[in-house]
Structures are given as structure tokens and as C-alpha cells.
């Protein structure tokens, strides 16, 4: 691939395109993911995230573009790519009729691990993922968080150097989500590269070294969380008013504010400067204002600014390409 390195990046993509009929789902995406990092691909429902992952993991052919994964060309060296990666999708690959241990042994058999090697790997993964006590129970009895941990453990049986996590925490409770985040962080410290797709902006902020925002099949922004936040100018100040009368009075005095009488709050644009904050404070009546919070732009603001619509945290499904 002209102009690309194959030593420092685990994923290298130039001009990736995929269409279904006259609908272009991935429209000329370029990206590079350095080894040993987490890259998060953000985007609203239907943005093309899952299609991108399927192409990178050899499950779907691209219409155009050049793609190398783990140093291999996904078209010409698909077998080598598959041997180097692990994929955990939105929907669990766990066989609920088998126990946790049996699911892991099945993956070891599929990976042609020897009996002794398989036993050692299965034991290590059960311990690492907190599944020792539940190892010999059928997976059907597992909670959603346990099932997701088992799913990721199964992905790790062959020891992949690169893992694709497509919406890995969809449907999990906050504690299970945090547990999975911690496992991902541990993997990265061991040199594993993680390619993550998500609509949970907090997830990307917590885990990703770099992230890209995909909208309509196009990568509309890319960078660190801090770099993306700087794309949205300024921030906002939220004032907590003492009562409805105070909200009305503050709204009259601060015409640039957006009042919320029901919540007894007002929101003002803020350029982030101390001068503007001091000027505002000097003009406030302590009896009318009971609280103040300064909000800098967050990834939700970035998402809205770049895609023209808010995030869909809490949804339960991703785009379903044919």
C-alpha cells in the first residue's frame, strides 16, 4: 500500500467504500490505528460502524479501498488476518447450553490448541474474568455482565493481538460496563490493540486513545477526546435559581440565558475565560442564585455539532447492514 507503514499500525485504511444498491454505507474512510492503543469509532445509528468492522475483520468484502489489518491485506491475506484478530459483536457468541468452561474449551478446540495448552488457557481466562465459581454452570444461568465477560474471554482464547469490540457494552448495567472497561484497559497494558465501536460517549472518553466520528459513512472528525472537544467553541454556565420569581428576574437581566423554569435553572454561553466569569459573578444577587456550575464542551456537544443530532445512549440496536 503506497504511503503506508506496516510496522507501527495494526489497522491501516485508505479510501474504504461499501454500498448496498445506490446507498453508500461507507464513503471513503481513511484511518490508522497504532499498535497497543484503543481506537473508538463513534457514530449515530446507521452511520456505518458495524459495516466498517465487518470489512476490517474479513466478514464482508469492500467495494473499494485498501485495508491492512495486523500487517496483512484483508483481501489477499484474509486467513492471516483472521488468525491475528478476535471479534466480539453486539450479540453474544456464547452457547447457553454449554457451561462457561465448555464454551472456552470449544474455542480452544477450534483454535487447535493442544490439550495441556487449552487447559492452562481456559483456567487463566476463567480466573481473569471472575468466572471460576460459575465455570461449571450452564451459560444460560449467567447474568448479562457475566455472559459478556465470557464472550470476551472466548475471543481471547487464541491470544489475538488485535480485538474488535462492536458495541461491547450494549444492554449492560453501569457496574458491568465499568468491569468490562477495566478488562479492556488491562488488555491494552499487555500490548493488545482494541478497535471499539460505540454510541456511549462516556465509554469512548474513558477508553480511547483516539476516536473518529462516523456520520453517513464518512469520517467527519478524528482525534483525541480533548482535540474533538476543542472543535466546539466555548462552553456554558448553569445557574440554579432560588425560585420561579428569581428565574424570571435573571432571564430579564441576562437576555442571552436560556431559562428552564421547571428546573429553576438558566444556561448561558461561556467562552471559558475567567474575565467573563468574574463579570457574571459581580452582577449576580446571592439571594436569587443558589448555585453555579461551569460546563466545558463534552463529547455529547461534539457529537451534536458534527452530526447535527444528539447521541442515542441507551438504545439497544445498531444499524443492520444487509
3D structure, described in words:
The structure is a single chain. This protein is α/β, with parallel strands linked by helices and 322 residues long. It has helices at residues 49-56, 78-84, 100-110, 115-128, 144-156, 174-189, 201-207, 225-229, 244-253, 274-282, 299-307, and strands spanning 9-20, 23-34, 38-42, 64-69, 72-73, 85-88, 162-166, 193-198, 210-215, 218-223, 235-241, 258-260, 265-270, 289-295. A six-stranded mixed beta sheet has the order 6-7-8-3-9-10, with helices on both faces. A hairpin with a 2-residue loop joins strand 4 (64-69) and strand 5. The longest helix has 16 residues, at 174-189.
Summarize the structure.
With 322 residues, this protein is an alpha/beta fold.
Distance between the termini: 29 Å
Using only CA atoms, what is the Rg?
24 Å
Shape: globular
Low-confidence sequence ranges: 1-7, 312-322
Strand fraction equals 25-35%
Summed over residues and divided by their number, the pLDDT gives a mean of 84
Question: Helices and strands: which structural class?
Answer: alpha/beta
Order of helices and strands: EEEHEEHEHHHEHEHEEHEHEEHEH
Q: In order across it, which strands form the biggest sheet?
A: 6-7-8-3-9-10
* Helix content percent band: 25-40%
Our count of helices gives 11
Total DSSP E strands: 14
Sheet having the most strands: 6 strands, mixed
Amino acid at each position: 500500500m503506497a504511503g503506508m507503514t506496516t510496522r507501527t499500525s495494526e489497522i491501516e485504511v485508505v479510501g474504504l467504500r461499501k454500498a448496498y444498491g445506490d446507498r453508500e454505507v461507507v464513503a471513503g474512510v481513511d484511518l490508522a490505528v497504532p499498535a497497543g492503543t484503543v481506537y473508538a469509532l463513534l457514530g449515530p445509528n446507521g452511520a456505518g460502524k458495524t459495516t466498517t468492522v465487518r470489512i476490517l475483520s474479513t466478514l464482508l468484502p469492500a467495494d473499494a479501498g485498501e485495508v491492512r489489518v495486523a500487517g496483512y491485506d484483508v483481501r489477499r491475506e484474509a486467513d492471516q488476518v483472521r488468525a491475528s484478530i478476535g471479534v466480539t459483536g453486539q450479540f453474544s457468541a456464547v452457547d447457553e447450553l454449554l457451561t462457561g468452561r465448555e464454551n472456552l474449551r470449544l474455542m480452544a478446540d477450534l483454535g487447535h490448541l493442544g490439550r495441556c495448552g487449552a487447559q492452562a488457557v481456559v483456567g487463566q481466562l476463567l480466573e481473569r474474568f471472575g468466572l471460576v465459581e460459575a465455570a461449571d454452570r450452564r451459560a444460560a444461568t449467567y447474568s448479562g455482565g457475566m455472559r459478556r465477560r465470557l464472550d470476551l474471554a472466548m475471543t481471547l482464547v487464541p491470544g489475538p493481538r488485535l480485538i474488535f469490540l462492536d458495541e461491547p457494552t450494549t444492554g449492560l448495567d453501569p457496574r458491568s460496563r465499568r468491569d468490562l472497561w477495566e478488562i479492556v484497559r488491562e488488555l491494552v497494558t499487555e500490548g493488545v490493540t482494541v478497535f471499539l465501536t460505540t454510541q456511549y460517549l462516556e465509554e469512548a472518553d474513558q477508553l480511547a486513545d483516539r476516536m473518529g466520528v462516523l456520520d453517513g459513512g464518512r469520517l467527519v472528525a478524528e482525534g483525541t477526546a480533548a482535540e474533538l472537544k476543542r472543535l466546539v467553541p466555548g462552553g456554558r454556565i448553569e445557574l440554579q435559581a432560588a425560585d420561579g420569581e428569581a428565574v424570571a428576574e435573571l432571564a430579564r437581566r441576562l437576555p442571552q440565558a436560556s431559562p428552564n423554569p421547571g428546573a429553576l435553572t438558566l444556561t448561558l454561553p461561556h467562552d471559558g475565560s475567567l474575565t467573563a466569569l468574574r463579570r457574571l459573578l459581580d452582577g449576580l444577587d446571592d439571594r436569587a442564585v443558589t448555585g453555579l456550575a461551569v460546563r466545558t464542551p463534552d463529547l455529547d456537544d461534539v457529537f451534536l455539532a458534527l452530526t447535527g443530532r444528539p447521541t442515542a445512549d441507551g438504545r439497544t440496536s445498531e444499524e443492520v447492514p444487509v
